[in-house]
Amino acid sequence: MTFRRILIATSFIALGCRHGNVPVPAFSPATTSKATSARGESIVRNAAVCGQCHAADPQRDVDGPLSGGMEFSDWRIGTARAANLTSDVETGLGSWSDAEIVRALRNGERKDGRLLAPVMPYEWLHGMSDDDALAVARYLKSLPPVRHEVRQSPNFVFKLGKLFLGPKPAASIAAPLRGVTAQYGGYLAQNVGLCGECHTPRTGLRSEPDRSRLFAGMAHPPKDFPAKPPNLTPDPDTGIGRWSEADFLQTLRTGTKLTGVQLHAFMPWRQIRRMSDDDLRAIYLYLRTLPPIRNDGAPAAQKR
Ligand code: HEC
Ligand code: HEC
Q1: Which residues have any ligand 1 atom within 6 Å of their CB?
Q2: What are the Cα distances from residue 230, in Å, to 47, 68, 190, 275?
Q3: Does the CA dihedral 139-182-213-222 come out positive or negative?
Q4: Which residue, by CA, sits nearest to atom 27 of ligand 1?
Q5: How far is the CA of 287 from the centre of ligand 2 (A)?
Q6: Residues 97, 25: contact at Cβ < 8 Å?
């Protein structure tokens, strides 16, 4: 090989190796003892509701086996399919270490280092604490294996995009103290539950969350959203500014808007309502601290 050829070859390898650069996290013994599969289960099933995408049949059974398959097509990615999260060794996470699962959740990298399509909400899960992310990994590893091979079909744009898209940087994160505080509520609403993923408008070519309008609702949701996520900021007319804590809890517990209309099942209230009163009260407190934003295109329901 000539020198030139070697140079070209190595620069291609260097480009190809932009992935794999986030080391898998190392956990302290304190984290290891706090992370329990029960905590992981409540995050996966009640708060983040991973089954909305990863269940075998998300339309009919969000709480069913997480063997994957649901398709997401977009010109930026091609077709991504929700992965099999059960402990099957060949087609699921059976051969993954806990730390590799944590890296997938928070940094968006597969076991082999390749970038996951951003349909997988690592943009939000990036802020999940070490304890909680490890708890999620432990719960997933405890799931009975289901053999179901899921293939990914990234298109040219996504393969090319990976030259400028990258994984989220490594971080070691401690959760705010658990309690009925706005701080803990903010953590739940953005990094554990995926409220922010649906209730925040997206912007730009890469369709990223518009953090200057957190929780302002989506006037123009992506085409695969069957319902419009309303404005949860404290704006009195188009947000939840006039809602009491009781209104908020009642809406989520009963799945009924203040106007009496039932919430669409795409808003996973049947799962979210299993969160504790304290957790939901913390989320309410947090939402009250947001700047009120008027959004006539995605108003929350007001009392009659
Ligand atoms: C909006 C849909 C969506 C939600 C919600 C979601 N995921 Fe994913 N997830 C995906 C898709 C799609 C992929 C595959 C992306 C790819 O391979 O490019 C994926 C991939 C993964 C992977 C990588 C597995 C592999 O074999 O490559 C893990 C681990 C994972 N998800 C765990 C979770 C967990 C745990 C939750 C809940 C906290 C969750 N996901 C929530 C859509 C979602
Ligand atoms: C998968 C997307 C999605 C996720 C995740 C999600 N929501 Fe929603 N939410 C929606 C949609 C869509 C609606 C409107 C449903 C309708 O119009 O029937 C909604 C409605 C609501 C309402 C009712 C507002 C009204 O007008 O009555 C509240 C309150 C709410 N969500 C809070 C939350 C909280 C808190 C979380 C996180 C714990 C959350 N949502 C997670 C999509 C989502």
Answers
A1: 44, 48, 50, 52-54, 72, 80, 82-83, 85, 101, 104-105, 110, 116-117, 119-121, 136, 152, 194
A2: 18, 28, 16, 20
A3: positive
A4: 110
A5: 13
A6: no
26, 29, 34, 35: CA torsion to nearest 10: 30
With a CB cutoff of 8 Å and minimum separation 6, the contacts of 22 are 103, 107, 109, 167, 168, 169, 170
C-alpha angle 14-113-24 in degrees, rounded to nearest 5: 115
Ligand 2 neighbour 193 (Cβ under 6 A): yes
pLDDT, tens only, 273-291: 999 999 999 999 999 999 9
pLDDT tens digit string along 135-178?
Answer: 999 999 999 999 999 999 999 989 887 767 889 999 889 999 99
| Ligand 2 near 272 CB (within 6 A) | yes
Tokens of 21: 């650069």
CA dihedral 220, 222, 227, 230 (to 10 degrees): -50
Q: How far is CA 303 from CA 219, 236, 238, 260, 289, in A?
A: 21, 11, 12, 9, 21
List all residues 6 or more positions away from 130 whose beta carbon is below 8 Å from its beta carbon: 25, 27, 28, 31, 35, 102, 172, 173, 174
Tokens (6 digits) for 62: 């969000």
Q: How close is the Cα of 76 to the center of ligand 2, in Å?
A: 26
Kindly report the protein residue whose alpha carbon is nearest to atom 5 of ligand 1: 50
Spacing, Cα 48 to ligand 2 middle (Å)? 12
Whole-angstrom distance, CA of residue 14 vs CA of residue 38:
41
| Amino acid at position 229, single letter | P
Among 107, 120, 146, which is best to mutate for testing ligand 1, by the most ligand atoms less than 8 A from CB? 120
In total, the chain counts a number of residues equal to: 304
